[in-house]
Automatic annotation (TrEMBL):
<dbReference type="InterPro" id="IPR027417">
    <property type="entry name" value="P-loop_NTPase"/>
</dbReference>
<dbReference type="InterPro" id="IPR002789">
    <property type="entry name" value="HerA_central"/>
</dbReference>
<dbReference type="InterPro" id="IPR051162">
    <property type="entry name" value="T4SS_component"/>
</dbReference>
<protein>
    <submittedName>
        <fullName>Conjugal transfer protein TraC</fullName>
    </submittedName>
</protein>
<feature type="region of interest" description="Disordered">
    <location>
        <begin position="25"/>
        <end position="46"/>
    </location>
</feature>
<feature type="domain" description="Helicase HerA central">
    <location>
        <begin position="476"/>
        <end position="523"/>
    </location>
</feature>
<dbReference type="Pfam" id="PF01935">
    <property type="entry name" value="DUF87"/>
</dbReference>
Length: 826
């Protein structure tokens, strides 16, 4: 997305000639402002000339709430904000992000300044290959925990970078004391977080501990963070600096003037000195994506609009004088006085355009300093990393140069404190700063989450905790053979291992999950002719605490959905006459059986239907007859199975299609009764529904299912729909609402029709379409988790877990022959 001229709040193109002319210019400045600037310069000089490390580090005090006293009368706060899908997003979405960032930067007034930091922080060597992703639990899962941890640690070593990326926005205000700074900083914090939320960017203010961790990651790279507030007792003279400061800082390592040494690490800060004729939004992202430890820092200090206008007008006056001088010289020498030097002519055009933007296009002018910080264990490696940065920058028309003899100022300037000690700057407009996007290739690494694959872009692990999403409901979709079932089995295992207090329920219409559930110590409930399993659609044991009216309403909804499942294919749903008859008969069934102190069964319901005078009632009874008598009567009787085990698989692969839907709806009603209780249980229930598209054949079923999807999350229910074909499903309005109200999608290879449906539903860009089209391999796809979209791959190594996850027909047949069929209810 190039920055270009337009009338929709876009800034003018970055023109180095004009911006260079603006360097060093000054508008009118008040005496108070001059005094304040002089005081700030004096404090910076003291920092630079400090003889010990503690005085040198660029802040005076850090409070537990995260507010730092940077200098006398200056206070700052830092918010960390999450990544979003920008680089692969649609053009209109990218423009929306640009607009939001522009409004964020324009929010800051002339008496504040801000620092944008994007830091690639290495995962400590002590953690690589040694991390415990899952803790050992019961005997059934312990061996799989050990294998899974080993696999993920091996994959962690495969990561191209093994870096954690952080994005910080630090802002600084003036105040007499910290009490005066708190309301100012609090207002800015709230407004910034709210603005970032407009692009689904989650942000929070760092507390004191988090902020000190961020400082130490830049001040003492690769050192272990051991800070504890308890160490700062009244009896101790220690300050926060004592606990995060390095033992040594050498600003002339081996006589170098462009680098410095911190303990055993060599560091260098580079200056972004110039830009190409047109700013592109991927310039900074390409540097951030380098697989090396670094941070990119943007310091911006807004000018008052009157000062900015005076500055540009002053430059225009100066250029007018230059033009007059050039014309006089041309007349004296007999040249055509209308021919002006190209640089002067272009500079005036740019200055006039800039003046128009400042006056009419909601643009502001900022003093800008761009810094890039990197570090390595040796000077040789540091030089190689600097060469990589410079090479990428040059390829993106950025001029990046070392800061010779200014590394003292530079180190304090790359710490996320909000104070720029490097007195080298240029003027940029709002749009030119907003164009320097802080969003590069996305990473997803949420502590406590499950493994979903590796990023196709960085190779780093993709770890997601669905429980952190605003709406954890979701879908896993893909063509047969795309790796869909493998991914679902892997997520089920993630859930069981990562959340030992949660319960897992699977609706298994194809008989794919039995071996996994048995291996993990779960229970398999087999619904098939000849089993002694019975599920009663009229069971109310789980909702016995509710009023009779509420129970009757719940059960009427369920029986209506079951009756809809018995309709012929392609039906438009239950006729109103049928609905009225069914509602009447459900009520009669409960009333009659209450006299016998028992719950009704399908046989009771069937008998009452047969008694009704309407012909429609006899038709409905005829539809239910096969479920009351004969081989399919395992829905007729009192329930003899439940969810006592925290892992339950309901195997329906021996049932016909209509019978599967009937069984899934009956089991779904049991889940609803179990979960949706008041007050809600302190247990999260993960429900996996394979072939979920089969539930969308009738409007009544869709209504029932959509209500569960919409209301279940309030009761700790996390639903996952699994489907091969989704385009037909998404034609239903309720199904589309379910997608809209979901924040989790794991999409594998899609057929053309499904690809178009997901493109429209999720507003996929061309790049994102390429992650799920028919060109990708099995196991690859796109993970959507809230505002984060990560292309994934997964070459899962063969072993015991692979055998459990593998769903290839040959592998399943071999397992069945070796282990025998999964038995009935446990």
């Amino acid at each position: 997305m190039s920055q270009r001229n337009s009338n929709d709040m876009k800034a003018p193109q970055a023109r180095p000639g004009m911006l260079a002319l603006l360097l060093g210019g000054a508008g009118k400045t008040s005496k108070t402002k001059k005094a304040s600037d002089e005081k700030a310069k004096s404090q910076k000089r003291l920092r630079r000339s400090a003889k010990d490390i503690l005085r040198y580090i660029g802040y005076d005090a850090m409070y537990k709430d995260g507010i730092a006293q940077v200098e006398d009368g200056l206070f700052s706060q830092t918010i960390e904000f999450s990544d979003i899908s920008y680089q692969s997003a649609r053009k209109e979405n990218q423009e929306n992000v640009f607009t939001v960032l522009s409004s964020l930067y324009n929010y800051f007034s002339a008496d504040t300044c801000f620092q944008l930091t994007i830091a690639n922080v290495p995962i400590p060597d002590r953690e690589i290959g040694k991390r415990a992703f899952f803790e050992k639990g019961d005997e059934a899962t312990s061996k799989y925990v050990e294998e899974y941890n080993g696999i993920l640690n091996d994959k962690m070593r495969e990561g191209f970078s093994n870096l954690e990326r952080h994005r910080y926005l630090t802002y600084m205000v003036g105040a007499a004391d910290v009490d005066g700074a708190i309301p100012k900083l609090s207002r800015i914090k709230g407004d910034c977080i709210q603005t970032l939320s407009r692009v689904r960017c989650q942000a929070h203010a760092l507390d004191g501990t988090e902020r000190l961790r961020a400082l130490q990651s830049q001040l003492r790279p690769k050192s272990e963070f051991t800070f504890d507030w308890d160490k700062l007792s009244h009896k101790s003279s220690l300050r926060t600096k004592d606990l995060i400061a390095p033992m040594l800082i050498d600003f002339k390592p081996q006589g170098r003037a462009d680098a410095f040494r911190v303990d055993d690490v060599y560091c260098q800060v580079l200056l972004i000195k110039s830009f190409g004729s047109v700013l592109e939004d991927y310039y900074i992202a390409n540097i951030i994506d380098l697989p090396i430890p670094l941070s990119v820092n943007i310091h911006a200090r807004p000018l008052a609009q009157s000062d900015a206008l005076a500055l540009v007008k002053g430059q225009l006056d100066w250029m007018d004088k230059e033009i007059i001088d050039e014309q006089r010289t041309a007349v004296r020498k007999g040249y055509d006085y209308t021919i002006l030097p190209p640089e002067l002519r272009y500079s005036k055009e740019e200055a006039e355009e800039l003046l128009d933007f400042l006056r009419n296009k909601n643009e502001r002018l900022f003093r800008y300093t761009g810094l890039i910080y990197t570090y390595a264990p040796t000077l040789e490696e540091l030089d190689r990393q600097v060469e990589q940065i410079v090479s990428v920058a040059q390829g993106n028309s950025l001029g990046v140069e070392p800061l010779y003899l200014r590394q003292r100022e530079a180190l304090n300037s790359v710490l996320p404190l909000g104070n720029n000690h490097v007195d080298v700057f240029r003027y940029l407009t709002t749009g030119q700063i907003a164009m320097q996007m802080p969003f590069a290739s996305q990473e997803l690494n949420q502590p406590g989450g499950g493994y979903y694959g590796q990023s196709k872009q960085s190779g780093n692990l993709v770890i997601c905790d669905r429980g952190l999403l605003a709406s954890p409901m979701g879908f896993v979709c893909g063509k047969p053979g795309s790796g869909k079932s493998f991914s679902v089995k892997r997520e089920i295992t993630n859930t069981i291992l990562a959340h030992p207090g949660d319960e897992v329920i699977i609706f298994d219409p194809a008989g794919e999950y039995g071996n996994l559930i048995s291996a993990l110590g779960g229970a398999n409930i087999r619904l098939a002719p000849g089993t002694d399993t019975t599920l009663n659609p009229f069971d109310t044991a789980a909702v016995s605490d509710r009023s009779d009216a509420t129970k009757l309403a719940y059960k009427t909804d369920a029986i209506l959905a079951l009756s809809s499942a018995l309709m012929a294919e392609g039906s438009e749903g239950l006729p109103e006459n049928d609905r009225s008859i069914i509602t009447r008969c459900v009520g009669l069934a409960y009333d009659r059986c209450a006299l016998e102190d028992r719950l009704p069964t399908l046989e009771d319901f069937h008998a009452i239907l047969a008694e009704q005078p309407e012909a429609e009632a006899r038709d409905i009874a005829l539809r239910y007859e096969r479920y009351v008598h004969g081989a399919f009567s395992f829905f007729n009787g009192q329930s003899n199975v439940g969810f006592e085990n925290r892992i339950t698989n309901i195997d329906m692969h021996e049932l016909g299609q209509n019978m599967k839907v009937f069984g899934m709806l009956t089991a779904l009603e049991m889940v609803r009764n179990r979960v949706m209780v008041t007050p809600p249980r302190d247990v999260v229930t993960w429900l996996y529904i394979d072939e979920v598209q089969s539930l969308f054949g009738h409007p009544t079923i869709v209504d029932y299912f959509a209500r569960l999807w919409r209301e279940g999350r309030k009761f700790g229910l996390i639903c996952t729909g699994i489907s091969q074909n989704t385009s037909h499903m998404l034609l239903n309005a309720n199904a589309r609402d379910m997608v809209i109200n979901s924040d989790f999608f794991l999409l594998h290879k899609q057929g053309p029709a499904d690809l178009e449906a997901w493109t429209e539903m999720l507003d996929l860009s061309t790049a994102e379409r390429g992650f799920i089209d028919e060109s990708i391999k099995a196991g690859e796809g796109l993970l959507v988790a809230g505002g984060i979209r990560v292309p994934i791959k997964d070459d899962f190594p063969k072993g015991e877990l692979f055998k459990l996850f593998d769903t290839k027909p040959a592998a399943i047949a071999e397992r069945s022959m070796r282990e025998g069929p999964i038995g009935g209810a446990k």
